[in-house]
Specification:
Strand order of the largest sheet: 1-2
Radius of gyration: 21 Å
Strand content: under 5%
Order of helices and strands: HHEEHHHH
Number of helices: 6
Helix content: 55-70%
Number of strands: 2
Structural class: mainly alpha
Length: 121
């Protein structure tokens, strides 16, 4: 009997450890958000030109489109405590946020932190 219980627990744990689908957007967000995001992904796909990427600054363009998506769907406002201020800051300073994300952590410390201090007062 104990062996049967051990096997049953093994199979139950095995069933729960099955991998989740990679694109399981609907389990986290509404259908509207998922369809908007998937259309955004299709819109920003970049084809390869004859000599590589057609646009050298594609990362900035992609980041701006993702920030536009976050602002339009108001997903930033749902962050507890700082959501409204973060949404307003990103809406007003999209170029700065995109350039900071592109440059990395060093640019974050040099550019964004002083602006956030002045914004939050």
């Amino acid at each position: 009997m104990k062996i049967a219980v051990v096997f049953a627990l093994f199979f139950v744990s095995f069933a729960y450890s099955a991998p989740v689908e990679e694109d399981d957007c609907l389990s986290l967000f509404s259908n509207e958000v998922c369809t908007t995001y998937s259309s955004l992904e299709k819109e920003i796909e970049v084809g390869y030109g004859y000599n590589g990427y057609q646009d050298v600054d594609i990362l900035t363009i992609v980041l701006k489109k993702k920030l536009d998506f976050l602002i339009q769907e108001k997903l930033l406002e749902k962050i507890p405590l700082v959501g409204d201020k973060l949404h307003d800051f990103v809406a007003k300073n999209q170029d700065l946020v995109a350039s900071v994300l592109k440059k990395g952590v060093t640019a974050l410390i040099q550019n964004l932190v002083p602006k956030l201090k002045s914004f939050l007062g």
